[in-house]
Hints:
The protein has 16 helices and eight strands.
Amino acid sequence: MENFLYVFSMILQIAMLIFGGYYTVISLVGCLFKKEPKCKNETNITHKFAMVVSAHDEEVVIGNLVDSLQSLNYPKDSYEVFVIADNCSDSTADISRQHGATVYERTDDVKKGKGYALDWMFEKIFAMDKHFDAICVFDADNLVHPEFLNQMNRQFNRGYKAVQGYIDTKNPYDSWISMSYAISFWSINRTFQYARYALGMCCQLCGTGFAVATDIIKDIGWGATCLAEDMEFTMKLTMNNYKVGWAHDAIVYDEKPLTFSQSYKQRVRWMQGHADVLSRFFAKLIKKGVKERKLIPIDCACYLFQPIRLVALFYITVMGILQTFFPDGNLGFFQMTYLFSTPLIWNTIVLCQLLFTPTVLFFEKKLNWKVIKGYIPYYFYTFTWFPISVVGILKKNNKEWFHTQHTRTISLTDIEK
C-alpha cells in the first residue's frame, strides 16, 4: 500500500504537470498575442439573426435585456427578438411584449430547463415563413452591447458557423462573489477562449451570448438538454467537425450571484452537467482525435477532464502544504514523494500562480484597485471549486435545475456609469 501511494502520487504530479504545462502554453498565447486567424475568403453579407431568450420568472430583468437587444446597431429588418416564457408564473411574457419582443409561452412540467426550452423554440423558428441565417441565445438577466451583432456578423462572414461572444459581468462590484466571478470570466475570455481562437482551435460555448447557424442546428439537431447544454452542444459540434469561433468585441453583460449560497448551487449544477458530458463524450473525442490525428477533439476532451483535474489538484495542493511540515514525505501511515522536492521550487510555482491572473487582467485592461482588493477572496472562491467538483461528480445523474433569482434592475446606462 505504501509503495502504491508513493508511485500514485508521483504519476499524478507528472500528469498534472503535463496538463498544466499544456494549458499554460495556450494561455500565454492569449496573453501575449492578440491576432485573428487568417481568412482568405471573407464575405460581406448582412446575415439575419433570430435573438432567442429563455426566461423563467424573470420579470425583474427581462425588460432591460429586450431594450438592449432592440437598440443594437444593426439593421432592424435583419434580426428579431424572441422570448420563451418558460413555465412562468409572473409577468415575464407581458413585460417582454411591452418592450417589443415576440413571445412564445411554454408549459411543460416534465421537460424542464433551458435546453428543452431552446429545442422547443428552435423547431418553431424553423417552421416560420421568415428565414434566419443564425440563432443567437441569451439568458434573461443579460444586457447586450450595441455592437454585438456587427461583431457576430463579421465572424460569420469569416466562415464560422458557431461563434461565442465575450462574457462580461454587469455587477462585478456588488459582492465578493460577483467580483470573483468577474475575475474568473475575464481571465477565461483571454487565456482560454481568445487563445484557442488565435491558434485556430475550437472555443467553448458559454450558455449565453453565442450564435449558431440555423442550417447546422437543422443538420445535427440541438438535443442538448442536460444541465450544461452549452458544453454538450460544443462537443456535439466538435464530433461533427464544426469549430466554435470567438468574437472578442461581441460583449454580453451577465448578472452574477451575490451570495456564496447562490454561487454554490449554481456551480454544483455546472459541475453536474460537466461530469455528465464528460462521461458521454470524453472517450469519443479521444478516439476521434487519435483516429483522425486532430488536436481539436483531444483539446475538447482535456477541457471535459476539468472536474477530475480539480480533484487531483486539490490532492496535490494538500501535498504541497504537507511538504512544509514533512519534507521527507514520511507521514507515518504512508510515504509520499514530491516531484518538486525543495520548498524554493514549490514556493516559486505558487508565486507564479498567484501573479498569473493579475497579469492576465492587466493585458485584458481590467486591473484596478477594486479588482486588486477582490483578489484575496477570489482565491477562496477558487479553492471552493475543489469540493464543488467532488459534489458535482457524485451528483452527475441528478438533472434537477436550480433557478437563480434576480432582484436587481441594471441597465446599459448603469454599466456605462
